[in-house]
Each structure stands twice: as structure tokens, then as C-alpha cells.
Amino acid sequence: MRELYPAIEPYLEGSLQVSDLHTIHFEESGNPLGQPIVLLHGGPGGGCPPFYRQYFHPEKWRLVMFDQRGCGQSKPHAELRENTTWDLVSDIEKLREHLGIEKWVVFGGSWGSTLSLAYSQTHPSRCLGLILRGIFMLRQKELRWFYQEGASYIFPDAWEEYLKPIPITERDDMIAAYYKRLTSPDLEVQLAAARAWSIWEASTSRLFFDSELMQKFGESEFASAFARIECHYFMNKGFFETEDQLLSNVYRIRQIPAAIVQGRYDVVCPMISAWELHQAWPEAEFIVVPDAGHSMSEPGIRSALIEATEKLVNLIS
User: Which residue of 48, 145, 270, 317 has the fewest C-beta atoms within 10 A of its own C-beta?
Assistant: First the structure.
């Protein structure tokens, strides 16, 4: 079982204005002469906590992390305007060019896997490799499972708390009902909805309840960006042209070395999506962690991700 590398600090931090409205915060850590890799965080709206740096060998990788529009240290906070999948794909390219990187490995989990697929399919020539975890392709069956009916059968106690902000008369479309409240001009209504939305995800992300994770997701600043931006993307169907866009465009990236890591008991992003991606992309290494849920910090997933980064850096070096 692989453990995290020791904690490190970034050797460079900065901000990049990507539109008249948005500025994204980024950092670099590890080895400035190492293989470049960009980490795409989850959510959308999750931001990059410092412990993410510990998944990458600090002497082998030049790690780039950034907070996507509206979250983390990026500004303005929790902003929904000019915030789409394709804005983020453009931001990734602007950041790559800003840092003078010709090609890099793309690492993303959960929503980060969605964005990794969207970016790599748009700019395949800029990708040295892909490491994906907890596959999410933002299709309606995935959204219905987690936010309407399905995951609720496994976590009925947590689901009851998720239902509370929504009147019975509006529960036939929970995403729309939450969106109404998350965009309310009443900040108290907005925050109550944001906390309930975020805590629902934290309650289901690990094989066993993690009270510290639930507390973090319930913090006002994090919950506001996380819930508002997620719900905004889900209401807009990921801003994709067709529901199966990411799956049908896999042919564009099949030549890129890749690993797919999936927890068998992932309730947030059930394994069926990873399995369907694997069937469309048999060249990618497919790793099922038998005793894990969704979180990248679960021991089996953590170990598999570190193994995948080691294998890939040796392959491309």
C-alpha cells in the first residue's frame, strides 16, 4: 500500500487573468525540471487543498495545480457568469502557455475526470498522458442516481438531511429546486441550501462516514462555491452538445497513455461510468479498487493513484 509523499510547499504561486471577470490562482511544486503534470480538481467548485501535492514524487514531477473559476483562491468567489466547461478548457490552455509548457500529463478525479476528458479531446496533442479517477461524464443517468433517486437507497439517513431545504411539492426535480435556492438573492436561503447540498456529497464520498470531511464541506465559504457551481453546471448539462459527448469522442485520445482508477463502491460516481469508458477505451489501464468508495484519500485509491503516477512518469521519461 503506497503512502503519500511528505508535505511540500509550492516554489511558485501566482494568478492569471483569464477573462475580464475571472482570475484564477495557480501554483507549481515539486521539481521545476521534472515532467509537467496538471491536476484538475473536482466539483466543479472544489478547489485544490495542499495535500494534493503529496500524490506526486517531488523529484520527478513538475506539478501544476489551479483553482477553477469561482472557487478556492480564484476570483470572484462562487461566480456563475462566464463559468462553463469550455471556459475552463480554455483556461487550462492559457495556463499551459503562460507557464511555457509544451505538453503535460493531465490528472483528474470526479468532475476533474470530466474536465480531463473534455480538455484532452479538445487538445490531444498537448497531452503526454492521462490519469483519471472516479469517472463522471455528467450524463442524466449519473445526475439522477445521485441527486434524485438511487444513492438515496444506500444513504437514507444522509438523504433525509439533503431533502430538508426542499418542500415536498418541489422534490420531483431536486437539482432545479436546489438551483432556485442556490441562486436566491436571500443569502441565508442560499447558504442553507449550499451546506445541505455539500454535506450530502461529503456524507457519501467514503466507504465509511468521515465527520471531518463533512465538517469541511459544511463550511460556508467552501459550500457556497461548491454547491452553486456544481448545480449551475448540472442545470446546464455540463454545457455539452450531446449527453454522450465525452464517451463518443474517446477515439480522439485512444493513443494517449492512460490509467482509470475506480472504487468498486463509489456511490457518488458509480462504477458503471468507468466501466463504459473502459469498454470504449480498452487501451487505457483499468484499475478497480475493491474496498473503496469515491474519495481519492481512501487508502486503496490513494495507493493506486500513486502507483499510476509512478508508472507513467517512468514510461514518458
Answer: 317
